[in-house]
TrEMBL record, chains A, B:
It is an enzyme of class 4 (lyase). Its cofactor is pyridoxal 5'-phosphate. Residues 78-383 form the Tryptophan synthase beta chain-like PALP domain. It comes from the Bacteria. Pfam families: PALP (PF00291). One of its GO terms (molecular function) is threonine synthase activity. InterPro entries: Ser/Thr_Dehydratase (IPR050147), Ser/Thr_deHydtase_PyrdxlP-BS (IPR000634), TrpB-like_PALP (IPR001926), TrpB-like_PALP_sf (IPR036052). It comes from Billgrantia zhangzhouensis. This is Threonine synthase.
Amino acid sequence: MSESRPYRYASHLACPRCEADYALDSLRQLCACGSPLLVRYDLTRLAATWRPEQLAERPWSLWRYHELLPLAQPEAIVSLGEVVTPLVELPRLGDDMRLPRLVMKDEGLLPTGSFKARGAAVGISRARELGVTHLAMPTNGNAGAAWALYAARAGIQATIAMPEDAPYITRQECSLAGAHLSLVDGLISDAGRQVAGFVAATGVFDASTLKEPYRIEGKKTMGLELAEQLGWQLPDVILYPTGGGVGLIGIYKALQELQAIGWVKGPLPRLVAVQAKGYAPIVRAWQEGARESRFWDQSRTRAFGINVPKALGDFLVLEALYATDGRAIAVSEAAIDWEQRRAAQLEGTFVCPEGAAVLAAARELSTLGEIPADARVVALNTGAGIKYPDDRDLGVPRLAADEALPIPESTTRRPS
Amino acid sequence: MSESRPYRYASHLACPRCEADYALDSLRQLCACGSPLLVRYDLTRLAATWRPEQLAERPWSLWRYHELLPLAQPEAIVSLGEVVTPLVELPRLGDDMRLPRLVMKDEGLLPTGSFKARGAAVGISRARELGVTHLAMPTNGNAGAAWALYAARAGIQATIAMPEDAPYITRQECSLAGAHLSLVDGLISDAGRQVAGFVAATGVFDASTLKEPYRIEGKKTMGLELAEQLGWQLPDVILYPTGGGVGLIGIYKALQELQAIGWVKGPLPRLVAVQAKGYAPIVRAWQEGARESRFWDQSRTRAFGINVPKALGDFLVLEALYATDGRAIAVSEAAIDWEQRRAAQLEGTFVCPEGAAVLAAARELSTLGEIPADARVVALNTGAGIKYPDDRDLGVPRLAADEALPIPESTTRRPS
């Protein structure tokens, strides 16, 4: 299939707060007003020339949606093989929580084992295209790991600051990739201040969440894939674990763009932002009906990716919740642990703690009657459980090399 | 596209040693002669009715090759979303080892983070189709993890014995999935004896490597995918880390079947079995020109998946090496560590130690002149590096929350 249409339909950068516009092909961070910038597309022109059937012969990677991505040309792509992640049916777990139409998009199958690969793939590709040679960012682990590895592939230097409590393996990923990594005795907000100081001192590109406009475009592909995998029919509810919130904003942006080009119809799904009770600034803001969140400085959660005391894009997250009749909800640590085990036992899927939080939230909203049993519900598992080893005693018997395996009570012995 | 052709073309089970045949749809373990059994297909009939173009509209998962898989019907599939794993170009690492056409098939993107998901997906699907309700197996970690999780999804009980030195996260996978797991103070060969005793005492299905004929059919899909991804052109060399050897035998079987139905032409690629110097029974056998390996009981390697002192299918591995003008090669622990870091720094890919062993072997064979610079070389990375956290001190600086990030020497400070 030869395509003589443009590779890209991105037109400019726009501020969602003050509505200022910026040219696309210059290196930008925040708007002059301090708000994140978003990429805008010529959706009218795109609607006139792009059809779902044109996707049929394209590779199953996030780059199949290049018309809705910011790269000027395919040669700029920096890829580690970003597969379209599977939409896994969860019939037994769904029945167990009276949501028989529950499905899970499993982001653990991306390179680096988390959805952060999407932001890194598009963010790094675009950074390289714009001439970046060194970037800096704070991280709760997975984003830093993904950006460090994609940066290495692109030949870009990365300076990364990470709380020392972040999942251990992510520091190994950064270190192996050759990033300049520092561990911080503090929160991601502390690491963020350190990165801001570093950027001020050096002029290095600031790749912090939403301080550049392209990471969100990568995250957006979750929404594009989801819509295509559901045959361009929107589900009723999408649940997402929310730390910095870029994934949720990205999905919302994707669905709005698909609506604008006429590929999906009807009301957008209700978007549910899931946090942990130990860290729930978005939930508190939503409960107050606020437009922004306030800094949250107590406590913590095992779902480390959610540990963001105050997200730069909080107002965009809240706007998406209000606009879709969605909501925010916080779940307990006990519910996260229980649901992670339940999912493994009933469905064989080993989700990350953030993914378990989402499943626990679905269960709670079902119990509360806020999601009806016939709803088509999509849960996002943002990463592979294998990135989060847990030191708790698993109660596994230890045998000498010549001992016999214990026979479970339910198993019959052969007559001897 | 409606397809009225059969879903499956498997015809019977055959012994590669004594040539006995067995009916397909009964539960079988080894041949009466003690050899593994292999699934045979009606390749003549398949050649007459199957064309590569018929794959075009099928989902990008290993099930797209169902004509060459043993399931009687699609309803039997137990899936966690087995994506077609990417073939990642490694131009900088390739140049670095004078193999500019080096590519890597990255099996770390499968569910459970390793190629073992292929064997488990097909093995468990087929086990369920044949009525298995409980299975037992020894494992070096990843296979047990994959089988435990797929078994949970299928509602099958799993009893698993694992050396206590196996990667930590794999015991967590087994435990979360609800498997009956035991840790053994010994090698996989000890665990294998324990499983044999358990099977003798209970009559539980023995899912040990090659003691049932279907795991290898799952592994085979690596070869099928590889051939399709290369446009049905065979590469010159395929390197594979070899413990039990099923992956390598599976790739060999896949390529032979594709040859038989006329989808690939010309000589098969040279197959290279990669082991670690601390554990190299196949290499020793190959050096001796032997048809089988001898038990290897000294030493160990960080590439834990290779720790197999004597593989049941060793004669099939060696046959594949001899038949393709391939070879076996052992690499050092230092080379594994160095190559793992090199791959991350040059290409942004975090391979597992077994995958690093394969890349180290490619480098060594290039240096020895055994692989020419213009060869199309495929390296298999069998799992995600994130499954193997490493306690070595990474030398990462630790900062207080109010300290400044160190500025790398190569980075210019802004004039203040």
